[in-house]
Specification:
Strand content: under 5%
Distance between the termini: 42 Å
Radius of gyration: 19 Å
Structural class: mainly alpha
Number of strands: 0
Number of helices: 3
Number of domains: 1
Helix content: over 70%
Order of helices and strands: HHH
């Protein structure tokens, strides 16, 4: 009887272009988070200094990993890709 309630769905795999775009967007997002954490660290007081220093270290590690992954796949994250993906996201978020 329980088998009646199980819903099976097909998981669609992303194509290489979608995976590449997603990796580039992750790099851009992490870079922005790192920039924000650095700015906030400059004005932090008390326990927030530790918080932002850990956040900076975590974002640096994540960015290092993502850049190495992109390089291993031959993906170049340059200003052109950065602008293209930002425009794409702005267009899709507005919908």
């Amino acid at each position: 009887m329980k088998s009646e309630y199980i819903k099976e769905t097909i998981i669609l795999d992303k194509d290489d272009k979608q995976k590449e775009d997603e990796l580039i967007m992750s790099i851009i997002k992490t870079r922005e988070e790192l920039k924000i954490a650095n700015i906030n660290f400059e004005y932090a007081e008390g326990k927030l200094i530790d918080y932002y220093s850990y956040k900076i270290k975590a974002n640096l590690s994540k960015l290092d990993y993502l850049v190495k992954k992109a390089k291993s796949k031959g993906i170049v994250v340059d200003m052109v890709n950065d602008i293209r993906l930002r425009q794409y996201n702005e267009k899709n978020e507005a919908v």
